[in-house]
Specification:
Helix content is 11%, strand content 48%. With 108 residues, it is mainly beta.
Length: 108
């Protein structure tokens, strides 16, 4: 019974993964983002500041813009801008981590 109690406590303390959280690798910078369930907005943190960018009409892909920052995505690529200044480019969407999965051992 004690073993079951310990197992239940361990399971209860593991947070559920956020199904809308994603990460982009932009060169050396990791950019975590979160989309709402309908892809109407994108949320990100940059340099300690929290930003919400509503989705706006774009020619191709998806564009999120709050009048200051804009994040453009097409497929698994993205770019973050402040007006016309490119802040982060060459961003690649990272695979979503599966809970409990471990990285495979590398062959030597």
């Amino acid at each position: 019974m004690l073993g079951l109690s310990v197992l239940l406590v361990a399971c209860a303390s593991e947070p559920e993964p956020d199904p809308y959280a994603r990460q982009y690798q932009c060169g050396e910078t990791l950019l975590p983002v979160r989309l709402d369930g309908h892809f109407d907005w994108l949320e990100l943190s940059l340099n300690g500041e929290h930003h919400i960018l509503p989705k706006v009409q774009g020619a191709a892909g998806a564009r999120y813009d709050n009048g200051r920052l804009s994040f453009w995505t097409q497929g698994e690529e993205g770019e973050l801008r402040n007006g016309s200044e490119v802040l982060l480019s060459g961003c690649h969407l990272l695979p979503v981590a599966t809970p409990g999965a471990t990285a495979p051992d590398s062959a030597e």
